[in-house]
Amino acid sequence: MQSSIVAKLLKVLTIISETRRPLTFSEIVAKSGMNKSTIHRILAICTQENLVQFDKERKIYLIGGKVFDLVRHAYSGYDIQAIALDEMMRVHAKLDGSVTIGIPSGLEVVYLRILESNYALGTIQRPGMREPVHCSASGKALMAFLPDKVIDAKLAGYKFERFTERTITNLPTFKHALNEVRAAGFAWNDREELEHLVGLSAPVFNYLSEPIAVLNIWTVHARHSLPEILPWADTLKEAASNVSALIGGSPPQSGTLQAD
User: Fold this and answer.
1) Residue 184 in contact with residue 233, Cβ under 8 Å?
2) pLDDT tens digit string along 48-76?
3) Out of 54, 62, 213, 251, which residue is the most buried by the measure of CB atoms under 10 Å away?
4) Which fold has domain 78-256?
5) d(CA 60, CA 130)
């Protein structure tokens, strides 16, 4: 009996949280398929525990503050690099490159963990290294899945420093590249910061569908050209998707990213 009550309570919370607008009591009853007395009892419990809040003036139900507190506390305690390590190791074992995880830090990407390639790549990268967003696959992957208005605000006055002849050096070209990343679901870097490095990046999303980290694989151009590593993207995207799922995340719907 108790498990049945819990299941019904979770169903009601799911209905309230997934709706595009707050619902009335009658609408919750209709969507749930349960009888009025059951819904009334569940909503009373949820309201008492602050899982749901009731707007008396509009007579609608909304998610309560306790739910947001639970989510916030859960997210404050996890270590994304520890959660991602198994997927990183799987990618590392399957593909011929170095695998890293990075997180945004202002308009740079900071790398937390690096699994070096089994082959000598002639370059050294260490945790704590940083890259600008405009010339790295990681930066593009993190920026591309932000809403357009957020991208515009972040890049206002941004200096597109040239590192190689392939570096993107202006905002229109960079935004075009971000649109390509959105369409593909991953980003790429073809010697845009360093002449000898190519790589791919796939975003990790949180429960708000925000890109909070990237999984990357990179190698030296002398060993693999960009067209040769593009087939690695499916493995990398799958790994990033698995990490997102572990923290309850999912990618944003494309319509939510566009400017009005």
Assistant:
1) yes
2) 999 999 988 889 998 888 887 776 665 55
3) 213
4) Beta-Lactamase (3.30.450)
5) 47
Q: How far apart are CA 195 and CA 91, in angstroms?
A: 24
* Strand arrangement, sheet containing 108-115: 130-132, 108-115, 98-105, 211-220, 197-205, 187-190
Average pLDDT over residues 169-186: 96
| CATH T-level topology, domain 2-74 | Arc Repressor Mutant, subunit A (1.10.10)
Specify whether the CB–CB gap between 198 and 205 falls below 8 A. no
